[in-house]
Amino acid sequence: MAYKARSASGGLFGWARAWFAKLLLGLAMASVATAAVAAAYIGDGITDLKPEDKVVIASPQPVQLIFQFQTKGAPNARATKLLKQKVVDTVKASGLFSTVSDDAVPNGAILSITINDIASPADMADAEGKGAVTGATFFVVGSNIADHYLCTLDYVASPTAAKLERTAKHSVIIQMGMINKPPEHAVKIGNANDAVLTMVSQIVANPLNDVAKDPGFSGAAAAPTPPAATTSADTTAAAPTAAEAPAAATSTSAPGEQPK
Amino acid sequence: MIRPLALALVAVALLALGACAMEPLPAPSATLDNIQAVRAANIAPLAIGGFVPGPGRPTEMDKEFAVRGGIQPAPDGSFAEYLGDTLAAQLKSAGKLDPNSALVVSGVVTDTHVDSAMPTGSAALAAKFTLIRDGKTVFEKTLRVNDTWNSDFVGAVAIPDAINHYTGLYSNLAGALFSDPDFQAAAKAQ
User: Fold this and answer.
1) What's the whole-model pTM score?
2) Within a domain: residue A254?
3) How large is the average pLDDT for residues B78-87?
């Protein structure tokens, strides 16, 4: 799908935007533009699901999908539009649902996915500082700027079912400049577009697979809401529960191993 | 040598600071909270009536608004209509939108505000909602939502942040309506 990282028009990257703005300022101060050496990475905390780890549902049901991309907790309508198709494709590829629709479905099932580009004020200040240095040194002094993302996935199997929630964390790291080291705990992924799309796919697929392991996923009965589990590099995955769905291939591998 | 360089710097700075028009917002989408609120309220299917700007700022900001030189045009030419579209998106996703319903909700935007001042940005949105059932007014109330956030010095960060927080209020205001007990009672399925 067509995706472009955007800056002033409400793009995806929170503090990368700040970094970029300072970088431009640095370039303006020097009045010389030098070709940037850019590389994109994603964090290695979560990976693509292995086929043997994917939950299999015997009788997939339709679901209504709601997706929202947020920047620092605020809805980002443009980024939502840009990334929605990737999210839809990822949900469809899971095989957990018979159909994925924008509109209400007969069984009342709703899958709500929110990806939040998290950036604290300290992160922003750090990014701005690094961007200014890289720009002012004509990209000689490099910098790695990471954007961190939190995906919250909520599923209700029917209008009366309890809400099931899982979360996952991920990151995209953009490397600029000539003197630089590859970021730690990261995997090089083509360009920035590739990195963002891969991040979106992984940050959705993993908690979706986790929620499918919950006995309440099939919607046969309202299940008590379990405590939200987190899938990320520094926390453990959702504790697998015996899936009510038959033939469920329960994930046994904790996330954290990214193929190099 | 110094003067051309200084002029070049000024030119670049002016280009960076100059007003720029943002692309129009995409169509509003539903949120799980709003759908759940509509479901829990057990309201009847609704039709969407007219949504118009009230006098003053709502009219001045109905076509577009500016944040630090960044100009955000209204989707389909009217932010008041965007509020109606936002309500429609929530109701449609909850299976409660019926253009032929005898229950019609309409609104007048009574206040609208967005400010990316440092260090705290702020935004507000208020509207007077009216619900008519079979030609009779059964609900009329003004509801208001606000938001504040850390506003950055850098415009490239502050402008989209302000736009995101402000436009997010439309969905929040729809949620405030659906959660209002008087509205729920008036819109109850009969």
Assistant:
1) 0.79
2) no
3) 98
